[in-house]
């Protein structure tokens, strides 16, 4: 952190009444990650468009040798899948859309012509091989996939600014089958991949790993041969082709002791293009150095990091070679953050897309905090908090029944997966109250799951392992739960003491958020301090020795937490009265809860009136908390009045 905060809490009296990129990122119960075949078959049961035969083998290698063009989305060539049988295998299955016509198909060197299609699945009866045996399948195919929309397998467009046609792929979440033979299972990463791209000599073609060769083929064509030896998920395989020029820079992470990481950039070979984007590209080196310090060394350092410029409205984190439409600070930082969260460690199911998008968005935040400064970071996270609270409900975890083709915008919700996802990471950092421990969690998680997949539950377990703290409540509230807390605050101050009653209601189905809250106290003598108080129930009362009188209270001044503050009311000594009460939520919808923090042996009379003083409802209670139905009330302003026979208190109620 860049700011120093002094915490002053000498005496706290707590009374518990009830416990309980797209450039524009708007682009269950709990589930645990058990990478066993039985779990995978359950996963298949969710994706009922996939053949169960897909789960009979483990992919070890993808190889593509295809012809591509900057002016067309037509694909022609062959794809190889190497794998290991998990069971006796007599039917080989893969995914490839019917628009891709299969010219021939080979399995372990034998040509098979008796294959058949089941939707987007291709099923090949083969001579049975034993469990544990390796195999190699090669498919020769060609065709033009459907296009249109952001989540499209292959897209062609034209840059009017730079007069360049360009073609690129985007396979996330379910579109890899549009352009190559594939098994679309997140938990089955290939150990390596080769992508060979034949195109016109006017063009260059970018992809994953190292460019090992450019072969001149004659007839105005050449082949770019890319090879990667890191584990890779199916949707992170890509290509982009255009009339590119190459511009390279290098990052020098501290851990590499003077050695460097190549940052290889393919941008349009047009006047002014490099000059326009150079500053943004150059910034990438600083980002790599920062994230290598905060997480682990850039995971693919033995190969490269790079960018392919296209007309994509944002970016896509293809492993070692991001496809993007520009080089803004936020976009480059976000997509680079994916190399750790999304590519090195990938979400085990799309329900846990937070592992990809929440952490990439928080990587952007960290770039703001540690490169541009604390105030820039605070502005970034404040904007994310506001967007996350722009609607009352929705969980960061994506329920399984909401994961299917055509519903990608729920999976990649800018409000939930990106912004709320980043915000809850920031809040977890605040709950830990120790940055060294927080970043140790990040490093441990990357190390333990490197080259593999993980769930939100896995990250929780890592956080608990590193800190020794229990975060079950945190994930129940913020990851699986919905909504956010809303606060109504009453306070007063004497010469030396500060008194605060904090009433928390919530926006949605989660009944309570246990959390550390920061309050900035501005004293009458012109000084100030920040105190940290834990909200342990819907209503907490605190008494704090301050040594001087408070004149003003600010909530969450450094933007660590996500909440809305309905009201901050300064009372004199009303808070000591048996008739003192708080209420929430405000405004109300179907009900309002009235809380009585001060114990009383006497009954209280509660009256509800309209603006003109007309009595609408009246009752007595001796309870510490009551819930009053307000469904029959019309929208408007009302008053709740409470008396214990000697004291009277009145509050406004808005519906």
Give the overall pLDDT as a whole number: 90
Number of domains: 4
What's the tally of helices?
A: 10
Level-2 CATH architecture of the largest domain: Sandwich
Strand content: 35-45%
Globally, the shape reads elongated
Low-confidence stretches: 1-46
Question: What topology, given as strand order, has the largest sheet?
Answer: 5-4-8-2-1-11-14-13
Largest sheet, described in full?
Answer: 8 strands, mixed
**Distance linking N and C termini:** 41 Å
- Count of beta strands: 36
Q: State the share of residues found in helices, binned by percent.
A: 10-25%
Q: Write the CATH homologous superfamily of the largest domain.
A: tricorn interacting facor f3 domain
CATH structural class of the largest domain:
Mainly Beta
Task: Determine the structural class based on helices, strands and strand pairing.
Answer: alpha+beta
CATH fold group of the largest domain: Immunoglobulin-like
Radius of gyration: 29 Å
């Amino acid at each position: 952190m860049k700011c120093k905060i002094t915490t002053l809490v000498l005496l706290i009296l707590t009374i518990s009444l009830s416990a309980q990129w797209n450039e524009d990122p708007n682009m269950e119960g709990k589930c645990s990650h058990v990478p066993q075949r039985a779990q995978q078959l359950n996963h298949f049961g969710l994706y009922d468009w996939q053949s169960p035969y897909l789960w009979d083998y483990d992919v070890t290698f993808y190889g593509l040798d295809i012809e591509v063009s900057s002016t067309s989305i037509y694909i022609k060539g062959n794809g190889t899948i190497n794998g290991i049988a998990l069971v006796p295998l007599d039917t080989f299955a893969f995914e490839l859309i019917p628009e891709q016509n299969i010219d021939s198909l080979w399995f372990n060197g034998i040509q098979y012509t008796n294959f058949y299609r089941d939707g987007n699945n291709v099923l090949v009866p083969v001579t049975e091989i034993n469990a544990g045996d390796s195999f190699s399948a090669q498919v020769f195919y060609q065709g033009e996939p459907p296009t249109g929309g952001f989540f499209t397998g292959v897209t062609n467009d034209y840059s009017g600014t730079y007069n360049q046609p360009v073609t690129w792929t985007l396979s996330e979440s379910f579109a890899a089958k549009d352009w190559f033979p594939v098994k679309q299972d997140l938990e089955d990463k290939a150990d390596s991949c080769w992508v060979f791209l034949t195109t016109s000599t006017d063009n260059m073609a970018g992809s994953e790993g190292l460019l090992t060769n450019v072969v001149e083929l004659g007839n105005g064509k050449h082949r770019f041969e890319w090879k990667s030896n890191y584990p890779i998920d199916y949707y992170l395989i890509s290509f982009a082709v255009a009339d590119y020029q190459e511009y390279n820079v290098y990052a020098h992470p501290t851990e590499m002791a003077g050695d460097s990481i190549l940052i290889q950039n393919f941008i349009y070979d047009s006047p002014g293009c490099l000059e326009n984007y150079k500053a943004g590209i150059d910034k990438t080196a600083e980002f790599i150095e920062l994230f290598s310090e905060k997480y682990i060394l850039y995971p693919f350092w033995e190969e490269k990091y790079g960018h392919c410029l296209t007309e994509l409205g944002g970016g896509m984190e293809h492993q070692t070679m991001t496809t993007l439409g520009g080089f803004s600070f936020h976009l480059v930082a976000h997509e680079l953050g994916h190399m750790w969260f999304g590519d090195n460690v990938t979400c085990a199911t799309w329900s846990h897309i937070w592992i990809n998008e929440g952490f990439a968005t928080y990587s952007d935040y960290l770039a703001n905090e540690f490169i541009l400064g604390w105030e820039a970071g605070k502005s970034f996270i404040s904007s994310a908090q506001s967007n996350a609270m722009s609607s009352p409900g929705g969980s960061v975890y994506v329920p399984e029944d909401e994961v299917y083709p055509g519903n990608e915008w729920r999976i990649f919700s800018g409000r939930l997966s990106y912004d709320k996802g980043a915000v809850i990471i920031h809040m977890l950092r605040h709950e830990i109250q120790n940055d060294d421990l927080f970043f140790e969690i990040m490093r441990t998680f990357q190390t333990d799951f490197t080259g593999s997949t993980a769930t939100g539950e896995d990250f929780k377990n890592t956080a608990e392992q590193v800190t020794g703290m229990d975060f079950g409540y945190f994930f129940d509230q913020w990851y699986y739960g919905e909504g956010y807390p809303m606060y109504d605050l009453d306070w007063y101050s004497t010469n030396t003491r500060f008194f605060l009653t904090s009433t928390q209601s919530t926006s949605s189905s989660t009944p309570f958020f246990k959390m550390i809250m920061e309050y900035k106290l501005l004293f009458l003598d012109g000084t100030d301090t920040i105190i940290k108080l834990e909200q342990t129930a819907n209503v907490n009362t605190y008494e704090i020795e301050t040594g001087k009188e408070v004149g003003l209270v600010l909530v969450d001044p450094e933007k660590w937490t996500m909440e809305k503050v309905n009201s901050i009311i300064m009372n004199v000594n009303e808070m000591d009265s048996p008739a003192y009460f708080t209420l929430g939520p405000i405004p109300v919808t179907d009900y309002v809860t009235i809380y009585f923090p001060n114990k009383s042996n006497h009954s209280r009379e509660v009256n509800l009136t309209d603006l003109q003083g007309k009595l609408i409802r009246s009752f007595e209670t001796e309870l510490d908390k009551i819930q009053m139905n307000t469904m029959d009330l019309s929208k408007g302003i009302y008053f709740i009045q409470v008396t214990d026979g000697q004291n009277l208190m009145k509050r406004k109620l808005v519906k």
